[in-house]
Each structure stands twice: as structure tokens, then as C-alpha cells.
Amino acid sequence: MSRRLLWPVLALVALLLVNVFVTPSFLSLRMQDGHLFGSLVDILRNGAPTLLIALGMTLVIATRGIDLSVGAVAAIAGAVTCTHIAAGGDPFSGMAIALALCALMGLWNGFLVSVVGVQPIIATLVLMTAGRGIAMLITEGQIITVDNPAYRQIGAGFLVLPIAILISVAALVGVALVTRRTALGLLIESVGVNPEASRLAGVRSRTIIWTVYVFVALCSGVAGLMISSNVSAADANNAGLWIEMDAILAVVIGGTSLAGGRYSLTGTLLGALIIQTLTTTVYTIGVPPEVTLVFKAVVVLAVCLLQAPALSRALAPRRKVVLP
Amino acid sequence: MTEPVVDIRGISVEFPGVKALQEVDFRLFPGEVHALMGENGAGKSTLIKALTGVHRPVAGEVLLGGERVAFAGPAQAQDAGISTVYQEVALCANLTVAENILLGREPRRFGAINGRAMRARAAELLARIGLRVDPRSTLASHPIAIRQLVAIARAVAIDARVLVLDEPTSSLDADEVAELFRIVRVLRDEGVAVLFVSHFLDQVYEIADRMTVLRNGRVVGEWTTAELGRLELVQAMLGRELGVLDELEHRPDKGRAGEPLLVAEQLGRKGAIAPFDLTIRRGEVVGLAGLLGSGRTELARLLYGADKADTGRVLVDGEPLKLRGPRAAIEAGIAFSSEDRKGEGLVADLSVRDNLILAMQAARGWARPVPRKQADELVAKYLKMLDIRPADPDALAGNLSGGNQQKLLLARWLVTRPRLLVLDEPTRGIDVGAKAQIQKLVAELAADGMAVLFISAELEEVVRVSDRVVVLRDRRVVAELSGVDLGVDDVVELIAATPGAEPEKVAS
Amino acid sequence: MTALTARAPSRFLPVIATFVVFVATFGVGSLRYEGFATGQVVANLFIDNAFLIVLAVGMTFVILTGGIDLSVGSVVALSTMIAAAALRAGWPAWLVVPAVLATGSALGLLMGVVIHRFQVQPFIVTLAGMFLARGLCFVISVESVSIKDPTFRALATGTLELPGGVTITHTVVIALVAVAVAAYVLHLTRFGRTVYAVGGSESSARLMGLRTGRVKVGVYVISGFCSALAGLLFSLYMLSGYGLHAVGMELDAIAAVVVGGSLLSGGVGFVVGSVAGVLVLGTIQTLISFQGTLSSWWTKIVIGVLLLAFIVLQRLIVRRS
Q: Pfam families of this UniProt entry (chain B) (predicted)?
């Protein structure tokens, strides 16, 4: 266990302990009709979309970027698929169209960032603003409900465990394998740590940046499908609302610096779990769920301050750089 | 003679592990221009920063007008009348000229900034230094040279007794320098003490009344310009007496160069280096000699495509090469190790292994990773061959010492088997042992047929490892020396030469 | 165009462009729809967007230093909530107003100190501030709280008659006063000029001996104060306090500032530009509602396209200089 994951792990354990203390049956799991049920399973299922987007966001942040448009992209994916199904289309072709559109939006963001050279935060603000409008354009402002068992599987289906979490974990494992088995992870970190040295070493940073923006858009698309499938409806206004903030938060809590460079997928997983567990905890201890935001704020501030260079200098002036 | 306005007595400044200044004395008289000279790392900027309160000396004292001072920062030094103009203009380009001159001390009326009074005061200050610029114009609309002069106007605005000019001319052309000097003379005649730092000898001889030379954090001496010739000045800066060091070992196999590998024809970039011709042959080490700021790095960057040339072309194997960027150069077999190891070389947060294979990996693209086994073999081989310590592939590159970082960078390029290796200051700031290893390695690589462009501030080193030495001065190629009996003295004379009396000689 | 660029420095170009866009959109409306080009339609632009104008003013300060404040929408909501709850608890209006303004400023101060002292990115700190403020709303009450205080109601319903039979509300006056004060501070005080200097080059500003730390914290205090003021105006507009008020309004404010010609990297921009930005956004909304068949979501798409246009315009200006 690396040192920088220590705080997130402690935070998660503490949250779980609070839950066990309040509800002793918190950790219990039971099988029913071949499905696994329990509070832990709920946490995983509800956290699946955030985890998936945070996964893509980790890579974007590792290149010194950020993507604010993920929530809007998720809403568009749900809108496209549900409209397609509602018009009598096949759910699979609907999802394929949706994801292709998401990839296109990722290309657009990547174009603005790597070719035009716009700061990532502004470049993706464009799609964040316009994206929900586009989603509403697709649904014509309605909440489109669909009744399609196949489509429902993605967000609400079970294969012992919820399918949504299986998808997210598969994506996590996939990304871990791809970035570590190929050289993608190395090149992403290299671009994030020192763009100029990477350029002089011949790294194609433009391609790398483009790749991560397309990837995060695809992740958002799938997450959007989960969200809309879970409720069998597309709500252009509220689907994936604030999920970009949760995703960024998960990444930051997981120890990946917004300044780019070394990233930790395990950290992101922990971060996403912490956020979801926090939501559940607030619910179980009987505070109105909306107040979760206050706790989130406290957690973010605490984690950021603990990671802040100024504070760590003050606390431990001569600490050596920690080897991972 | 009058009393010195600045009198620095025996100050020492230390950084962790480095004695940047040791018992340095320095005097600055009102109404004179005093040049501070020295090569990179000599301690010039440390001395300026000790004067302006950025660094705190561990010993010694700074007297300003006879009184002992210890500033907490540039702001306090400014209030005491010490104004600094930096190489990178420290102004805000988004504001107007008038604001940049008076920011922080704007004339006010009833608490509000009085725009009219401010413009009038700025115009007055600009007139005083004879600069015709509209005070209402945005600074960004003016070229760097004008901005530099506006920075001087700002310095004048605080009624500076001491004006520090830290390499103000490095990006100016001849006319702009003349304008700057005219203004400096105006101020000098008004009694301002000017501390002038520049790498251009011609300029120093033109403007300075007195000079102090630093080397390795110590004062070599203080002279008036009239009593110290160019040759003696360069010797003082480089720290050698002529004729003493000629018994250096030379490479035994010098001059066995093969076919031309790279030919540059009238390659140049405005403000960086004047158009030059250069041929590099296989198996040949070409040295670049010149003082800091003479255009050595700029030349190397053009050959690698790190900066784009405005004029001329590059031929590799007789074929024109379109240098769109580093990747084009790498594909043509050119490798470049930057002088700025931290900023442009290493990826500090990545491991030794990752840094070592980075260039190779970048050339292969992300989808074809260097197989782990091959990477491990390469890492093991080069860690051993170059004696990189700690020999731990997982150590973070940023934690290595300077010499080991340099060797790691070299290794990064060697694994790509380049045909031309451009080394910019590969031995700067590293210990003697590592230096010798790198020099030996360069000789071996050349013997194996690789072409090397070797840049170093240390002339002995350049002369020792090179088959040919290209001499640069004031951003142009002034001569090319070759031959077995090539000596350091020849190079020093060329570097110190007065323009006009150009000895375009080629020793052979 | 060349004559224009020759006379107006490039720093005015984006603001001029904003006004051109405003006049153009308004012109399209007045040509196509009867009753569009009336004084009252213009007045309504101000009435319906008074809070957004104040918000954009505060955001302009932050963006001029190169920072960003994501918390403003939530602070608006928190301000409506505090106002409504305090009034319900029987506080007099003259006490509620300063209390709300102080709370907003204190939140801004807190964020500014964390950003400056601990060097945490403004994005993350103000994101936390956004969560905190939004969450605190629900700590006070999960339900919407209506405002019945007579002073507030009188202020909200009272109108001022201008020549030509155009009526405006008191909120418009407050918003315009805020704009005037902000313009004064930015252009005629040392604090304001230092805001520009920090945005232009923080290291240069420090080397010039300016008090950059005070400014970097100060702009967040100003933004917090403006958010609280905007919250008060919003509570007059809605006559209620609710935790779901002003969701996403920070994006509108940022969009208004960017469309108003400010550079998000700092140092370039004008308060007047931001006001014009708000008016452009408001006009688009009015146009779409006049059109009738076009749906409201077109507003977002058009704003997105405008954002893009201005970002690209600014890239071109930056590249050229």
C-alpha cells in the first residue's frame, strides 16, 4: 500500500465503521433469486456511474487537463438511446449511436484543447453549457420513458452483482491493463509531468491528449446509459447533474493531483467509493440526504489541505519524496 | 573619489549543499556603470539577489549609502532606492505604459487614481529618458525592447539611486541596444549608480566604466574597463592563464571523419542566431564554443527542430529534411540532450526505467510498448555502462544527482541509436568523475561512427573532445577551427576578438 | 475594420464585439417581432437579470486575477435561505441584510485564504465552497421558505417610473450601483489596478512590490459579497428562500463574463463587458420566448456557441500579439 493512498483508505474505513455502528446489519449480504443484496451492494451500484466517469477523468487530469462536460455528455447518451428506443428502435443500435456521438464530442473537446490550445476548463465549459441544451433538443424537452427489458439490464440488471458495477469494474481493470501493459500510461504521465521534456523526447502529446478526451467521453456515455437505464427514462435536465464534480472529487481524493502527472486508478476507485459511502452514511444516520453536500465539502477541503504542498512543508519540512 | 553608494563586504550566500557566494566584496559608485561579469554559475544573479533582498547572506554585510541594510524583499529594496530591471521584463503587458511605470505609486486625488496626473507624470518620466511612447498605449502593443525601456522608466520613477540591469540586452538588436545605452548614459550622468550584467563583451566595453569578475562564487578581481583587455577579461572569467593548459590530452584518433551526415545551409532564426552554414560528418565530434548567450544553445535547437528556423535548410545524407519538430529530427536519427535537465530533459516524477525508455517508446507509439524484458535489459546495460547510481530502475529520476541525471538523459538517447547526438552542456554542474566518464563516452561513440555536436562552456573540454570547433560570438558563427594542434588559446582569442578586426583564421 | 482596430487597442476588441452582438441580437428581435424594441423590454432585461449582473460583477474580479469561483450559485441559494429563515424567525430586515452580506463575504474570505495560503487550486476550493453553501441551505431547511416580511415585499413589488412610461424595480438600481462601484474600484483604486496586474503577471506584480496576497484573497471576498447581494436580489425576485434556487447559476455568471470579453487566464476584461454579457444572454432568452415555437433549450445551445465564438476570438487575439 503506497503512502499516498493511506488517507483515502482510512477515510473509507472510518465511514464504513460509522455505518456498522449505526446499523449493525450494514455489512450483511444475502442472496435472493441469484441476486446479491445488501447495503454494500447498493453503494457499489449507485457509485458505478461516478466510478466510470472518474476513471476517464483520472487520465484527463493526469495530462494536466479537466473535463467539465461529462455530465452533459452522459445526459446526451441517455437521451439519444431512449429517444431511439421510444421511436421503436433496437436498444443496441441506439446505444451504439449514442456512444458514437459521445466519441465525437470527445474528439471535439480534444480538438479544442490540443489543437486550438484552449485551457481545458474553458474548452469543456462550452460543451457543459451547450450539451444539456442538445440533450433537451433530442428529447424535445420531455422526460422520455421507455420500457425495454434489454435496455434496463445495464443500469438495473443483475448478474449476481449489479451489472452496472460489473461494467465499471471491468472498465477499471481494462484501463489498468491497457495503460500498464501498453505504453499509454507512461506517455500520459510523461505529458502531464513535463510537457516540454516530453515534446523534446518525441512524444506525440497531441494524440495522447486527444485519446484521453475521447476515452472520458465514452466513459460518460456508458455512465449516462446506466443512469437512464436504471430509471428507464431520459431526463435531459437532471441526468448526470453534478456528476462531473463528483468525478473530479473522486480523482482528487484518490491522490491524483490536478496539476497532472502521476495518477492512481486505485485511488480513484477509493475516491468514488468514499463519495458514495458518504452519501449512504449521511442517509443512514438520519440526516436529510441533501446535507451530504456539507460533508462532501469538508472531506474535499480536508483531503486537499492534507495534500497541499504548503501544508506538508509546514508539517514536515524535511520529508523525503515518497517512492510509490 | 566619492564614497560608494553600495558597498558589499565579505558576503557569503549558501544553498543546501552549495556555497553560492564566498566572501564577496563589491562596490558601486554613483555616476558610474559597473559591469558584473562571469560565466554561468559564477554567482552573478546570486549577488544581485543578495543585494535586492531575495537571498539572505549567511555572512558579511551590505551597506547602502554608508548604512547597513538587510532587505526582506525586492519591494523594500525598491523603497530604499535600488531598482532592478530583469532580463524577462517584469511588467504587466495587459496594462498601459503609464500604469506600468507608476503601478503602486499612482498619483491620487481624494483616494481615486488621477488618470490625467498619472499620464502626465509618466510622460514626464519618459521624456526624461528620451523615450517617445504614448503613455496611454498598452504595453503589449510594444516590442520587447520598448518594454525593457519602460521598465527602466519605472525604475527611474522611484528616484533610484541604484539601477540594476540584469541582462537587459539579451533579446535586443543593435539599434535597440544603442537606445538603451543612450538612456543608461543619461541616468549615469545624473548620478545614478548602474550595475550592468551582460554576456556581450562588446557591450560591456562600450558602456561600463568598471568591472568586477566573479568565478565559482568568488571575486576574481575588480578593474576599470581601460585597464583590463578583452583577452584578460575572458581569461579571468574562464579562470585560466594562456599557454598553461595546452598539454591537455587529445583524443588519439582525431580527424578520422567520414561522409557528411548533416549539412545546414544558411540556417537561422531572428533574435536567436544569424544564418550559418555547418557540416557534421559521421564519426566526428564538432564542438561549439562561445560565451553564454553567444547562440550555442539556439544553434543546437534549430538543428533538432526544437525551435523553427526562419531561413535556410537542413540536409541529412544529402536529402533536404523538413524539420517540423523534434519528431522529424528523431526520425532522421538526430537526438538532443538539453542543457536544462530539469525543465526540458527529465520527467522528474517518473522512474529511471521510464525515463530511460521514454524516447524509444515515443518513437514506437503507445500501442507498441517496449517489451518489459527488453526494457529491463536495456536499463541494466546502460545503468552499468554509464555507471548510473543508484542502479535502481525504480528510483525516481528527480531524486538522482545532477551527474547521474545527465547520464540517464544520455542513456535515453543512446538506446534509440541516433546518428547525430547533440549534447548541450552535458557536463555542467556535475562532478569531475562523471565529467570524465561522459567525455570518454563521447570519444567512444564517435569512434563507432556516431556524429556528435558537443556544446560546453568549458573550452578545454570542447577542444579536447572535438575534431573541429565552431566558435560563436554575439549570436553568429565567427570561425571554425580544426587540426590536431588546435589549442584553447586560439578559441579564447576568437571569443574575445573585437568585431571589425575579425581574424577569420582557420588553424590547420 | 482596420480603421477600428487602429483606433481601439485590441484589449477593447472583445468588449466591442460583445456590444455588437448585443445590438445585433436586439436588432434581429426588433425587426422580427412587434413590440420588441420598446423601452420596457430593455428594462425587463435588467429587471429579470439584476441578480445575474451583480453575480457577474463579482465573478469579473475573480476572473481578472486568473481565478475562478464556482461557489457563487450556491451562495446565492444560501443567501435566499438565510434571509427567508431569519425573516421567518422574526429578525428585522435591517438586520437580515447585513447578516447575509457578512456571511457571503466570510465564505469568500475563507476560500480566498485557503487558495492563497495553502496554494490549493481555486477550482477545487470553490467547488468545496459550492458544496458547503448548497449543503448549508438544506441544514437550515429542506423545504422552500416563503418571505412574508413587509419590508422585503414592499421592496420587491415597488417600482420606479422612468421617463417614457418605463418602469424598473429597486433591484435594478441596486445592481447598477454595484456595477458603478465595481468599475470605480477596478479602474480608480490601487486595489483594482493590482487586480489587473496580478492577472497580467503575478510574478511581475510581486517583483514590482505590489501587495498581491491581499488582492488574491480580496477578490474572493468581493465575489462572496456580490453573491450574497445577488442572493438578496434573487430573494426579492422569488420572494422565497430555497436550497434549489440558482442551481447552475455559476455557469451563467462565468458565461456572461467570458461573453463579455474577459480572458479566463486573467488580466483582460471590463465590468461593463460582463454587464453586456448578461444582457446578451438575457436578450437571447427574450428572443426565444418571443419566438414562441423555439424551445427554451435553444438558449443553452446558443450560449454554448457564443462562448465558443468568444474563446476562439480571444485565442486569435492572444496569438496575434
A: ABC_tran (PF00005)
Task: Kindly list the residues of chain B whose beta carbon comes within 8 Å of any beta carbon in chain C.
Answer: 74-75, 78-79, 84, 86, 89-95, 99, 103-104, 106, 108, 111-113, 115, 137-138, 140-141, 154
Query: Are B322 and B380 contained in the same domain?
Result: no
One-letter amino acid of A317:
P
In which residue are the cell numbers 445590438 written? C23
The type of residue at B275 is P
What is the C-alpha to C-alpha distance for residues B461 and B39, in angstroms, rounded to an integer?
Answer: 15
My answer on whether omega of the bond before B390 falls inside 30° of 0, hence cis, is yes
Beta-strand runs (E) in B199-259: 210-215, 218-224
The predicted-structure confidence for B300-349, as pLDDT tens digits, reads as follows 999 999 998 999 999 999 899 988 889 999 999 999 999 888 888 889 88
Report if residue A5 sits inside a domain. no
Q: Do residue B469 and residue B383 come from a single domain?
A: no
Between β-strands B193-197 and B33-37, what pairing exists: parallel, antiparallel or unpaired? parallel
Contacts of B32 (CB under 8 A, 6+ apart): B188, B193, B194, B209, B210
The total number of structural domains in chain A stands at: 1
Task: Assess whether pLDDT exceeds 90 at residue B419.
Answer: yes
CA distance A198 to chain B (A): 8
Task: At A200, list the grid cell.
Answer: 523534446
Q: Is residue A13 part of a domain?
A: no
* End-to-end Cα separation, chain B, in angstroms: 50
Contact C74, C223 (CB under 8 A): no
Q: Å from C311 to nearest chain A CA?
A: 8
DSSP A117-151: ---HHHHHHHHHHHHHHHHHHHHTTS-EE---HHH
Cα C80 from Cα C75, distance rounded (Å): 9
Strand partners, C161: C167
Write the CB contacts of A280 (distance below 8 Å, at least 6 apart in sequence).
Answer: A19, A39, A42, A43, A46
Cβ–Cβ < 8 Å for C55, C74: no
If interface means Cβ-Cβ distance under 8 Å, which residues of chain A face chain B?
Answer: 181-184, 186-187, 189-190, 193-194, 196-204, 208, 211, 261-262, 321, 323
- The mean-pLDDT minimum among B218-222, B401-405, C76-80, C160-164 falls in B401-405
Domain count, chain B: 3
The total of structural domains in chain C comes to 1
- CATH number for the domain spanning C53: value is 1.10.3470
CA–CA dist B356, B379 (Å, integer): 7
Chain centre to alpha carbon of residue A33: 30
Report ipTM for this prediction.
0.83
CATH number of the structural domain spanning residue A93: 1.10.3470
